[in-house]
Amino acid sequence: MLTLFYAPGACSMASHIVLEESGEKYEPKRMDLSKGEQKTPDYMKIHPLGRVPALKLDDGSPLSENTAILPFLGKRFGLWPADPVKEARALSVIGFFASSVHPAHGHIGRPERYTEDKSAHPGIQVMGKKTFHDYLKQIDRMYAGREWLSDKYSVLDPYALVFYAWALKRELPVSELKSYTALKDRMLERPAVQRVVADEGVKL
Ligand SMILES: N[C@@H](CCC(=O)N[C@@H](CS)C(=O)NCC(=O)O)C(=O)O
Questions:
Q1: Element containing residue 170 per DSSP (H, E)
Q2: CATH code of 155's domain
């Protein structure tokens, strides 16, 4: 059985939704990031950077990073394109999300990661918010005229939902992004998404 280590409202919500929708029995392990539960020696053996998500596979071995976990779950549950070109495009989106969109948001919430000079934090946060907003507009364009980012619903869509929720938390005018907002509404029609959003206390 798979075990998912997740935290409310974190990027782990994507894997949480995928597992909840899969119908497969899994063990959800809720972490409290504010208490530093992700930095305990035991958890650091599962995720060496002390972050979520992490997955314990059927054999008990750990897997970290959204870029690995989401394709793994997608292939297991039929939420990943089989065609090589479509798969490459899906990896391209996951790479964009994990290496550009997520770190831009990190500049808002964790400026201390980028400089020890506290006087520089506000500038980093302002630029992070602007860059994050620009990326959200790009995601909106990616959804224009289509229901899902791949040719059908896939792990990419719950991952996109994470950033929509973060945008609301940061009070960015994301409802102006019509295609992205329509995706959020489509996601919220899914019972598994409703269960995860309620469990994690996410506002959407
Ligand atoms: N590159 C990682 C990033 C994971 C990450 O930054 N997770 C955040 C939550 S969204 C976290 O665990 N933060 C807690 C911390 O840094 O202490 C991935 O995509 O899986």
A1: none
A2: 1.20.1050.10
Neighbours of 117 (CB within 10 A): 11
Q: Which residues have C-beta atoms less than 6 Å from ligand 1? A: 10-11, 33, 38, 50-53, 65-66, 98, 102
Reported as a single tens digit per residue, the pLDDT across 3-32 is: 999 999 999 999 999 999 999 999 999 999
Domain range enclosing 31: 2-77
**Residue 166, H or E segment:** helix 156-169
Same domain, 114 and 163: yes
Give distance in angstroms: CA of 53 to centre of ligand 1. Answer: 7
Å from CA of 88 to ligand 1 middle: 24
Question: 42-53 pLDDT, tens per residue?
Answer: 999 999 999 999
51 & 112 share domain: no
